[in-house]
Amino acid sequence: MTIYVTSDQHFGHAAARGFYRRPFPSVREMDAAMIAAWNDVVHAEDEVWHLGDFAVKQPPSRVADLLASLHGAKHLVTGNNDDAAVRTASGWSSIQAYAELQVDGARLVLCHYPFRSWHDMAKGAVNLHGHSHGRLKPVPRQHDVGVDACGFAPKVIINLLKAK
Fold first, then answer.
1. Which residues pair with 106 in a beta bridge?
2. Which of 24, 64, 77, 117 has the fewest C-beta atoms under 10 angstroms from its C-beta?
3. Contact call for residues 22 and 135 (beta carbons, < 8 A)
4. What is the value of pTM for the model shown?
5. Neighbour-count burial for 53-86, b at 16+ CB within 10 Å, e otherwise
6. Strand duo 99-103 + 155-156: pairing
7. Helix axes 60-69, 27-41, angle to 10 degrees
8. pLDDT tens, per residue, the chain with 164 residues
9. Hey, how many other C-beta atoms are within 10 angstroms of the C-beta on 2?
């Protein structure tokens, strides 16, 4: 099993194409490309931590269909655009506003929002976040894992930590 992290797909959000300068001619093509990118790297036995803003103003049936189409066990760390349809969807293995994980000895603090300081920061903990769509200046031991900063695909947590 491999553990991935991602955020900020904004599935179904027409304005995301303009707001974040996404290179897709339509919402349908944007969504299809992000589903394909997810499923190209994530396998059924893998785990994905989604750090918020999964879908925007989509009906519960659409959210359920999206979750069913994506590989892996999916955990949601809620974002500011995750409404009741997203938060109550049955396709999540867990739902929380904040999480801390240990992965291969690395201490991780997961939240939709980037922090200026975080739990165990002075002891080497790493903050993984979304929300900023690649627009914040990086700081040590903090990584924007949103699709706009990561080529529209989930990233392997350990590879992400080794790369920087």
1. 103
2. 117
3. no
4. 0.96
5. bbbbebeeebbbebbeebbbbbbbbbbebbbebb
6. unpaired
7. 40
8. 999 999 999 999 999 999 999 999 999 999 999 999 999 999 999 999 999 999 999 999 999 999 999 999 999 999 999 999 999 999 999 999 999 999 999 999 999 999 999 999 999 999 999 999 999 998 999 999 999 999 999 999 988 787 65
9. 16
- The residue behind tokens 């929002």 is 113
How many residues in total does the chain contain? 164
Run of H or E residues at 69:
helix 60-69
Residue at token pair 């396709």: 91
Angstrom distance (rounded) from CA 156 to CA 149: 14
Dihedrals phi, psi of 61, to nearest 5 degrees? -65, -40
The position carrying tokens 């392997």 is 156
From CA 143, how far away is CA 17, in angstroms rounded? Answer: 22
Can you give the pLDDT at residue 65? 98
